[in-house]
Amino acid sequence: MRIAIIGGGIAGLAAAYELEKARAAGAAVEYTLFEERPRLGGSLASEVVGGAVLERGPDSFLTEKPAAAELCRELGLGDELIPSNDAARKTYIVTRNRLVALPDGLMFLIPTKLVPTALTRLFSVRTKMRMALELLHPPRPSDGDESVAALVKRHFGQEAVDRLADPLFSGIYGGDATHLSAQTVLPRLVEMETKHGSLTRGMLAAHRKMRAMAKNSSKTQNRGAAIFTALRGGMGKLVDAIAARLDGRSVRTATPVSGIEKTAEGWRIAAGGVSEEFDALIMAAPAWIAGELLTPVDAVLGAELGGIPYSSSITVNLVYDEGKIGPLPEGFGFLVPAVEGRAMLACTFVHRKFLGRTPPGKAVFRAFLGGMNREAMLAESDEALIATVRREMAAILGTKTFSADVEPEHAQVSRWRRAMAQYSVGHQDRVKRIAARVAELPGLRLAGNAYDGIGIPDCIRTGRKAAQELMVGEEQRVGSRE
Ligand SMILES: Cc1cc2nc3c(=O)[nH]c(=O)nc-3n(C[C@H](O)[C@H](O)[C@H](O)COP(=O)(O)OP(=O)(O)OC[C@H]3O[C@@H](n4cnc5c(N)ncnc54)[C@H](O)[C@@H]3O)c2cc1C
């Protein structure tokens, strides 16, 4: 069986790895991975500069989703896995130009502790009253999807949207709470609203249940696991380790796929000026590209894929001599709500979040800019973007801590055009419609961040699953012929 994989991001690489494993174990499978760029990894791109690991894209993955750590261990990278430094975890929200720590007891957007919520400077008295009264919300049956902003506003008011939901979601998805689908990105809260009415009561009940389960469960070793896991040498190590396992003849970098045709037998792929025949196809390019390529095969499928919105983002890494920076507030960094009217969406204090990735005496900052409807920022020069970040950091951290006049030892800008899928209202219905069309096209599988989770573990899971399903399908086909 010959399988084409389009896209050499982490999803396509995970699919290729799965196929290579089967091939090495004797399965009659061949694959060709087509990647447009000269390098593999897609959004995963790390560099080591002066001993500091700099991430251009993702810096870690969620520990509670096992697919990424599992793959790392399979690849012999178990010793490279490092936890986030959660003992120092504290995140600030920029509030009228000042840093205000997220109140203790905030779980998944939901305030669960009375005193920290009452004392925080993040919310006005009016919002705090609303948060207290939220406990009285009666159960409400779900009547279809709505935006994250609508759900949060109904329970806690507009200020909670502006000061909490918006910065958290633009930090995670580069997204906009007024468009993101509550059903997709906050399914637990939607369920809690149906069952308990009050999200605070729902969250407290869930927390009590989890604590009781953890007490009785044999999985207690997972208790207290760090929220994020990274690779000591950078996320690029994962890309390198997969690439080292693949058969070099099966990987074509700098080879964009320009056309796809469905034939009677399978699929014809045009790339690099030649057309080749395959039995099956794993589409792991972003959905908007998948949509363009698949439109000649199925225009409805192409339109559905093309309808998944994407946001663009920019990361700016700045490396400083710690001696030239004043004392930083404790914690991992800060998020900037849109209502603050700044270019920056977030900033991570990299040297605090993961220990051992930066040399002693260096402070590394990673600023995140862009998001929905801010495409124009991508056209700004590196110098302009770096200057903006330095100016905004000085304004937010205060010039005693961070002076825009102190030159960084190293500055690096990375642009990610339409790289992050946005799960907008109605996403799940769209994904169902897409799945129904795909089911009509034998040998086609989709993988990547557009469908069922945008994180690295989700992309790995969908890539491996796509490869496994095709191989199972082939076994059944051969079995039924024999
Ligand atoms: C700045 C940033 C920070 C992030 N931070 C985190 C984080 O900390 N943790 C986390 O879990 N996730 C994070 N994410 C999300 C996560 O990194 C991505 O969702 C994931 O890497 C996407 O993988 P993918 O394989 O689906 O897509 P991509 O990485 O986009 O790969 C798709 C590939 O397809 C290729 N391609 C496109 N067109 C063609 C064509 N015609 N022919 C051949 N190839 C083509 C592209 O060049 C690309 O390499 C972040 C994303 C970004 C952009």
Can you describe what's shown?
By secondary structure, this protein is of the alpha+beta class. Helices cover 37% and strands 22% of the residues. It has helices at 10-24, 67-74, 114-119, 125-133, 148-156, 158-173, 182-185, 187-196, 199-216, 236-245, 287-294, 299-306, 350-353, 382-397, 427-439, 456-481, and strands spanning 2-6, 30-34, 46-49, 52-55, 61-62, 81-83, 91-95, 98-101, 106-107, 110-111, 228-231, 251-252, 257-262, 267-271, 274-278, 280-283, 310-321, 333-335, 344-349, 362-371, 410-421, 444-446. The longest helix is centred in the C-terminal third of the chain and has 26 residues, at 456-481. It is globular, with a radius of gyration of 23 Å. The mean pLDDT is 93. Bound molecules: flavin-adenine dinucleotide. Flavin-adenine dinucleotide binds at residues 6-12, 34-37, 42-44, 57-61, 256-257, 284-286, 289, 313, 315, 416, 419-420, 448-449, 454-456, 459.
Summarize, please:
With 482 residues, this protein is of the alpha+beta class. It is built from 16 helices and 22 strands.
- Strand proportion: 15-25%
Classification by helices and strands: alpha+beta
- Overall, the morphology is globular
Main pleated sheet: 7 strands, mixed
Gap from first CA to last CA: 16 Å
Bound molecules: flavin-adenine dinucleotide
- Detail the poorly predicted runs: none
Radius of gyration: 23 Å
Number of contiguous helices? 16
Mean pLDDT: 93
User: How much helical structure, as a percent, in the residues?
Assistant: 25-40%
Spatial strand sequence of the major β-sheet? 8-7-18-19-20-17-21
Q: How many extended strands?
A: 22
